[in-house]
Amino acid sequence: MKTTLLNILLIVLTTLVSCQDRSNIVVTGQVINQKTGKPIPNAEVVVLCWYNHSIDDASFKKQTLTTDNEGNYQTKFNKGHQVDVASKAIGFQPNRSYNELKDNVIEVNLKLSKRNGNPTLVTLLNTDKVMLDINEYFPFLRVRIPAVKNGTEMDFKNALTFGFDFKSLTTNSDTTQTDLWFRIENKEGQPSTIATSTKGGLIPILDNEIKSSLLYEKTTAPTKGYVSVYKLTGREEGFFIRCRDGKTYGKIILEKSAIDISSPDGKGSHYKEFGKNFSCLYQPTGTTNLTYSRTDIDLEDFLVDFRMR
């Protein structure tokens, strides 16, 4: 017991120290062309410096800058414990970096890749400012478990799973009309296994494979290595998907949060739903090019909105 309490105290102290604000923060850096190594002038840079607003609340100060002729930028903050930096430029894809402050002076350099057009790519991002019908069009995978009639127990025999169809960008409880879905398990809580059709399949994209954002990385779908059943580990940023036609490809980007809701069924009882929301990219032409070519994003949203993973 003493050992356990000591470990807990060490974890708490480590967390407090790591989030301790430093004073007179100076942030410098350079934005360069990923391919040529040359500086990018007139690039937009957004710097967020996080500080302890109160004992249980963190906030940030924001600076928006433009790089000089040598691609350099510099800014200062009164205090903070973490500096997040993102940049974009005309003709380039944005990039971002998250940095815990170990000193009051930090250099954050960013490399931007050239933008490549991809006019046939179909996208449905959960950051898009459009009205979506959550019953049909919102990108998600979920399992719905009704309650036993006139009781509090859950009726697993009548549970439904809602899969996703890339071609129509819709969800459906008929898994023969979808490309992937969660397997129903006889338990409450988050489902742990994703299934696909035998002609389709998925390949996980793990967190350690991503340097900045899955939206702009992993832009070519593999043609081999797909599996039709996959058990989640918790490290997945998303998945490459081979659709059930066996010849078209897509990519999903998982939200960090999970679906966990209980709702009345309109018949005097209720049901529970568990699952995941996500963004999707789909290439209907049969090519493996999943490059997201839009670069007109808000850099602050890019940094703080984890749906833009």
Give the helix/strand layout.
Layout: H1 2-18, E1 22-33, E2 44-54, E3 57-66, E4 72-80, E5 82-88, E6 95-100, E7 105-107, E8 110-112, E9 122-124, E10 140-146, E11 160-165, E12 170-172, E13 180-182, E14 193-196, E15 201-206, E16 229-231, E17 236-242, E18 249-254, E19 259-264, E20 270-283, H2 299-304
Parallel strand pairs: 1-7, 1-8
Antiparallel strand pairs: 1-4, 2-3, 2-5, 5-6, 9-20, 10-11, 10-20, 11-12, 13-14, 14-16, 15-17, 17-18, 18-20, 19-20
Characterization of the model:
The two termini are 40 Å apart. Residues 1-17 and 130-134 have low confidence and may be disordered. The protein has two helices and 20 strands. The longest helix has 17 residues, at 2-18. With 309 residues, it is mainly beta. Strands 9, 10, 11, 12, 15, 17, 18, 19 and 20 form a nine-stranded antiparallel sheet that branches. Strands 1, 4, 7 and 8 form a four-stranded mixed sheet that branches. It has two domains: 2-112, Carboxypeptidase-like, regulatory domain (Immunoglobulin-like), CATH 2.60.40; 122-292, no CATH class.
Nutshell version of this structure?
This protein is mainly beta and 309 residues long. The chain has two helices and 20 strands. The chain folds into two domains: 111 residues, Sandwich (Immunoglobulin-like); 171 residues, no CATH class.
